[in-house]
């Protein structure tokens, strides 16, 4: 066998060896990636569980009632601390003319009696309980 | 010559050494082979545990009342920690102290405490330093970049509604196993099976390959759906808390049951506890007293005896019975009525809650008939509810009855029943005579939500009384108790109600007589009268006598409000949409 052929065989063998090493290292890398994915999946599952717990807490009837009572307080304060005008509200004001502005800060502002009556309406336990029934956004 | 001899000696030595080695090899293979092989495999194997989630518990409307989440714990491996510190060429002699100081600051822990915990178990490979740490703490610990310290995730059981339903749900221990309540009863269903991934790894624990066949996926636990409704439960708990506070009572129990199916919609005990922190309360507070503690029911028991006597013909509705104006002696034992009564019929006796009247009716009954009536309503046997630890109550066999027992039983003495037994039996009267099996579990779901078991149909245990007798009790006698007993103050705002009050004395701990001034105030109610949907019981133990102790004043208003709010919540058509009519009823009296 001539030297050229020997070199050819040696190069071929070297190539086979290199490919084998490459395949092996790729396999290891894939294994590591799969394990990383498993760990990531665990982390995502954990995050999901955390969110489910948060939703469960928010859906609790006691929590719903507390929010409703907070909402009632907020609605009475709402007329006192009006938000600053935004481009959208300006457009609406233009469209509705002077009445739109008055509705927020002017003569349409609810009187104290109206505010109290609204608050007591919201606080009525029957209303609060309706929100806990199916079909009212809680379920 | 010398060379040959030396060669022979060397060769012989070599052969002997080889034989010795082969012998040792054979010995190891024979005696310790499997262990060493497993040890080697373990060194090369990396296992990743994939935790299975414990199933959740939901109320009847799908609100989660118990769920699981993963929380990070920080641990130390002292062997790896000291190796890492030694390998670090830049580390000073006090590297350990510096490291502990950094770790303690990051975990907001005491430095000396951290050091002593690590030093106490230097040979250990796993010391948990702090559980349930914050995300910021996780990042801070990982930033230390020491392989001797790490973060591991463990499952934590969470009860999002806090103390609500705690006595029914129970809780889970640190090992993840159910300790009490539904958590314990359905442990095998709720518990999942952890998954595992195995791969070969290098000496630096880097994965080399991974075979899907090695290991298994996690199997999450199944879910449990309760019959309880968190909103009705909240209503009951709010009322119980208010009653206990107002009357400075020792404890209270409240139950709401669907009279047509036997489903419990609420089961509450006061004082309550938070299952998220169950270790902070004594075991006595965690007991579900609605099923574990039998009590003498007192006058609440009269409707059962009255309906039994009516059904078996020991009394008729029109019969007039002389009640001896509040004082009478049965076989040498004196019985008193709080509110003296002259002549009265059965309805009057029940409405006025006359012990003497009931005693006279009972004295006509042979003991066997009385026992048949009592046991027919399920007293003296477990109801079979899914909560563990249920008591059967105490109903003595006829052979152990005294001559006075039949009379005592007529007004709820000489027996002990659980609140659950009472409301179950009351439902039998209210629903037309069928004793139903009470239940607190609607069904079981798989982890993916597929139905495994579903209990929608009521389970009839037996027929307790005839339908016509049940109708008489629910449409005539028991509504009169509510209407006439307290000038209409027990009348719900939007619905009609029937019921029976009870004020029983509390037996002494040594079982000799009764505690002075200690009462059990109860009220059994149901509504609306035209077609009862719900039954409610509230039992208040040891209210302050000077504030009030009659069942009608202590437990009655709570039952009225629970029934009113629960029926409204369920959307049951109102009897009085604009509120019940005012004005005193035809006959005014106060009876217990």
Any low-confidence stretches of chain A, pLDDT <50, length ≥5?
A: 76-139
Estimated share of beta-strand residues of chain A: under 5%
H/E topology pattern of chain A: HHHHHH
* Counted beta strands of chain B: 21
Rg calculated over all Cα atoms of chain A: 35 Å
How would you characterize the overall build of this protein?
- The complex is a heterodimer of chains A (139) and B (592).
- Chain A is mostly helical and 139 residues long.
- Chain A has 6 helices and no strands.
- The longest helix of chain A is centred in the N-terminal third of the chain and has 57 residues.
- The radius of gyration of chain A is 35 Å and the shape is rod-shaped.
- In chain B, α12 packs across α15 and α13 crosses α18.
- Chain B is built from 20 helices and 21 strands.
- Chain B has 592 residues and is α+β, with helices and mostly antiparallel strands.
- The C terminus of chain B is likely disordered.
- The chains are: A mainly alpha (139), B alpha+beta (592).
- The interface between A and B is medium-sized, with 31 and 35 residues.
Topology summary:
The complex is a heterodimer of chains A (139) and B (592).
Chain A: H1 3-59, H2 61-78, H3 87-96, H4 98-105, H5 112-123, H6 125-130
Helix pairs in contact in A: 2-5, 3-4
Chain B: H1 2-44, E1 45-50, E2 57-58, E3 64-76, H2 78-87, H3 95-107, H4 111-120, E4 127-130, H5 135-143, E5 149-158, H6 166-169, H7 181-185, H8 187-190, E6 195-201, E7 207-216, E8 223-226, H9 230-247, E9 251-258, E10 264-270, H10 283-286, H11 289-292, H12 302-312, E11 321-322, E12 327-330, E13 333-336, E14 343-344, H13 346-352, H14 355-363, H15 367-376, H16 405-410, H17 419-430, E15 434-436, E16 441-445, E17 451-454, E18 460-463, H18 467-485, E19 498-507, E20 514-527, E21 534-541, H19 551-554, H20 556-570
Helix pairs in contact in B: 3-4, 9-20, 12-15, 12-18, 13-18
């Amino acid at each position: 066998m001539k030297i050229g052929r020997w070199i050819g065989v040696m190069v071929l063998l070297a190539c086979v060896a290199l490919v084998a090493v490459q395949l092996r290292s790729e396999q290891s890398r894939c294994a590591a990636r799969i394990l990383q994915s498993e760990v990531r999946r665990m982390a995502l599952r954990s995050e999901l569980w955390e969110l489910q717990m948060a939703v469960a807490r928010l859906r609790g009837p006691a929590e719903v009632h507390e929010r409703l009572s907070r909402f009632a307080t907020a609605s009475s304060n709402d007329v006192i601390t009006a938000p600053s005008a935004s481009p959208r509200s300006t457009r609406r004001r233009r469209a509705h003319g002077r009445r739109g502005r008055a509705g927020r800060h002017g003569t349409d502002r609810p009187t104290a009696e109206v505010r109290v009556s609204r608050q007591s309406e919201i606080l009525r336990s029957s209303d609060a309980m309706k929100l806990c029934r199916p079909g009212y956004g809680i379920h | 010559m010398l060379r040959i001899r030396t060669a022979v000696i060397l060769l012989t030595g070599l052969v002997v050494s080889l034989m010795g080695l082969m012998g040792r090899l054979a010995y190891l293979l024979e005696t310790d082979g499997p262990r060493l092989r497993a040890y080697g495999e373990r060194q090369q194997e990396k296992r990743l545990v994939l935790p299975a989630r414990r199933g959740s518990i939901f109320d009847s409307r799908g609100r989660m009342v118990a769920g699981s989440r993963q929380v990070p714990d920080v641990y130390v491996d002292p062997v790896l920690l000291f190796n890492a510190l030694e390998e670090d060429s830049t580390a000073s002699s006090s590297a350990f102290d510096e490291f502990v100081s950094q770790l303690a600051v990051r975990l907001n822990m005491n430095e000396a405490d951290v050091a002593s915990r690590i030093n106490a178990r230097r040979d250990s490979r796993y010391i948990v330093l702090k559980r349930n740490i914050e995300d910021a703490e996780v990042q801070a610990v990982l930033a230390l970049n020491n392989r001797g310290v790490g973060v591991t995730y463990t499952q934590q059981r969470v009860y999002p509604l806090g103390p609500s339903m705690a006595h029914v749900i129970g809780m889970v221990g640190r090992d993840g196993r159910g300790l009490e309540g539904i958590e314990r009863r359905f442990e095998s269903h709720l518990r999942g099976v952890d998954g595992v991934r195995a791969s070969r790894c290098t000496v630096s624990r880097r994965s080399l390959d991974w075979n899907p066949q090695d290991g298994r996926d996690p199997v999450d636990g199944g879910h449990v759906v309760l019959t309880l409704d968190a909103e009705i439960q909240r209503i009951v708990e709010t009322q119980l808390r208010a009653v206990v506070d107002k009357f400075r009572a020792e404890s209270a129990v409240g139950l709401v049951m669907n009279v047509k199916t036997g489903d419990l919609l609420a089961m509450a005990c006061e004082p309550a506890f938070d299952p998220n922190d169950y270790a902070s309360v004594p075991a006595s507070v965690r007991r579900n007293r609605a099923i574990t503690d039998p009590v003498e029911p007192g006058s609440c028991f009269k409707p059962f005896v009255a309906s039994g006597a009516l059904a078996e013909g020991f009394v008729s509705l029109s019969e007039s019975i002389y009640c001896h104006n509040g004082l009478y002696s049965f076989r040498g034992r004196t019985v008193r009525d709080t509110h003296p009564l002259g002549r009265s019929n059965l309805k009057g006796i029940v409405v006025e809650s006359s012990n003497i009247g009931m005693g006279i009716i009972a004295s006509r009954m042979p003991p066997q008939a009385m026992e048949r009536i009592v046991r027919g309503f399920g007293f003296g046997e477990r109801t079979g509810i899914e909560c563990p630890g249920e008591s059967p109550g105490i109903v003595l066999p006829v052979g152990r009855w005294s001559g006075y027992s039949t009379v005592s039983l007529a007004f709820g003495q000489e027996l002990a029943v659980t609140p659950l037994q009472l409301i179950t039996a009351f439902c039998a009267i209210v629903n037309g005579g069928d004793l139903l099996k009470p239940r607190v579990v609607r069904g079981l779901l798989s982890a993916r939500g597929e139905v495994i078991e579903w209990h929608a149909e009521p389970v009839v245990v037996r027929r307790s009384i005839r339908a016509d007798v049940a109708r008489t009790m629910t449409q005539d006698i028991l509504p009169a108790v509510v209407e006439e007993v307290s000038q209409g103050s027990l009348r719900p705002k939007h619905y009609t109600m029937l019921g029976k009050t009870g004020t029983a004395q509390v037996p002494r701990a040594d079982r000799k007589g009764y505690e002075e001034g200690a009462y059990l105030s109860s009220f059994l109610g149901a509504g609306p009268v035209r077609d009862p949907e719900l039954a409610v019981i509230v039992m208040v133990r040891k209210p302050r006598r000077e504030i009030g102790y009659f069942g009608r004043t202590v437990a009655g208003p709570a039952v009225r409000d629970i029934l009113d709010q629960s029926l409204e919540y369920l959307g049951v058509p109102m009897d009085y949409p604009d509120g019940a009519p005012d004005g005193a009823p035809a006959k005014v009296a106060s009876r217990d």
